[in-house]
Amino acid sequence: MIDPRILREDPDRVRAAQAKRGLSDDVVDRALAADTARREAITTFESRRGEQKRLGKLIPQAQGEEKTALLTRTKALAAQVKEAEAAQAVAEEEWRQSLLSIPNLAADEVPAGGEDDFVVLETVGTPATFDFEPRDHVELGRMLGAIDLERGAKVSGSRFYFLTGVGAELEFALINLANETAREFGFTQVIAPSMVKPRAMDGTGFLGQAADDVYRIEGQDMYLVGTSEVPMAAYHSDEILDGSSLPLRYAAFSPCFRKEAGSHGKDTKGIIRVHWFDKVEMFVYTTVEDSYAEHQRLLSIEKAFLDKLELAYQVIDTAAGDLGLSAQRKFDCEAWIPTQGKYRELTSTSNCTEFQTRRLDTRGRFTTADGGTELKAIATLNGTLCAVPRAIVAILETHQQADGSVKVPQALQKWLGREVLEPVTGG
RNA sequence: GGAGGCGUCGCCUAGUCCGGUCGAUGGCGCCCGCCUGCUAAGCGGGUUGAGGAUAAAACCUCUCGCGGGUUCAAAUCCCGCCGCCUCCGCCA
């Protein structure tokens, strides 16, 4: 949720932000009207309620006719109060809904436009070249006995897989490396629940434009999370955090579930786009002022991780129209996938500023210059440390050799206990 | 899943049977001030959060786990839900 004060005091800024994302600004007018209506309704209710309370106090001391008269008046008033209260609730809800439907205001630096209007900030490493015909990760996975897509489909359906043998070992190695990296950078490790209540899902903005991608548990009013950003954002909901304890940096492991609705035909082969995968996600609570530097920090950690995997990648500044509901700015790290001849998203980091904490009611208590304290909205940020399947895809394809074996990046060797993954079947 | 108990403004706690001077008691902690060579003790005051109003205040409304209901009036009575604890059953 954006700051209601910005909407009231500078609606044109919100209109401009909507335009930048390619969205209508109707909702701005709707929200402004709702705000006015809401305040009127509050005034009406409060004046009636105030009178009711004043008169009510007189009743216990009143006697005889005076008391009867008072009761008649307060009884009528009670009905009015009830009515005014209901009207206020309606106005309040309309205001809330219109405000909730406004996405976070994109940063000035964010490129305008849609999915294809990103700006490449940086290219790191050189895409791998081969003196043989490189195999895709599906074939390599089969040769190594690492990825079993056929049985994944048999047991669970399309976009499911078993990681077996070195595939499973590779996941654990990646998780270990991610956790080691998290530790180096001062993150508290967390294992987060991947089923959440609607509050958490909605608070992180995933029941908005992304709702189609979310699995709901039948008959339970619970959801499977698509990322541990969801439980981690809700982790401190309804809390007032000690400002001096910030930043709070978490690295949360969880399985992630995505319907991938509307992606029919995209990445149908392999494990680039799957309904379930494991991920270690960085999640940070900090002040809004510090969030911009923290965002850069998360990006640098993601880059450091990709460097450890010895991958070639580019960093893009996502265009406004391709930002999530909550994000103010988003950087994606896209690794080179040899058999696709292009860069594909491996990690992503977003600064959600105060958008999520306003929805989930997380604030910070800070000491002011004069020694007092004040409550302020704080910022949340998230960033992928390692999304396992895509990391595996990039590693297998990048480090493959002519015979179908795969060189293990140095940083993973101690976790895998070997320098090369050897095929278990012929090519 | 069955039975019972509990949920009060940071923590503890009074109040709930018998609705209105509880529009929330006291203690601890914390903050400000006084006092005392310093410190401690002592004394006085302050200390939930949200919203409305205002130049800013004063002020007003809401907030006793959450949501309804009864009533002129609800922390208090009634209904539903959630969470925690204890016992039983079941189980990785």
From TrEMBL:
Chief location bin: cytoplasm
Pfam families: Seryl_tRNA_N (PF02403), tRNA-synt_2b (PF00587)
Record pathway: Aminoacyl-tRNA biosynthesis; selenocysteinyl-tRNA(Sec) biosynthesis; L-seryl-tRNA(Sec) from L-serine and tRNA(Sec): step 1/1
Domain (Aminoacyl-transfer RNA synthetases class-II family profile) ranges: 136-409
Database matches in SUPFAM superfamilies: Class II aaRS and biotin synthetases (SSF55681), tRNA-binding arm (SSF46589)
GO annotations of cellular component type: cytoplasm
Keyword hit for Aminoacyl-tRNA synthetase: yes
Gene3D superfamilies (alphabetical): Bira Bifunctional Protein, Domain 2, Serine-tRNA synthetase, tRNA binding domain
Positions of L-serine binding: 227-229, 258, 281, 382, 384
Protein name per its UniProtKB record: Serine--tRNA ligase
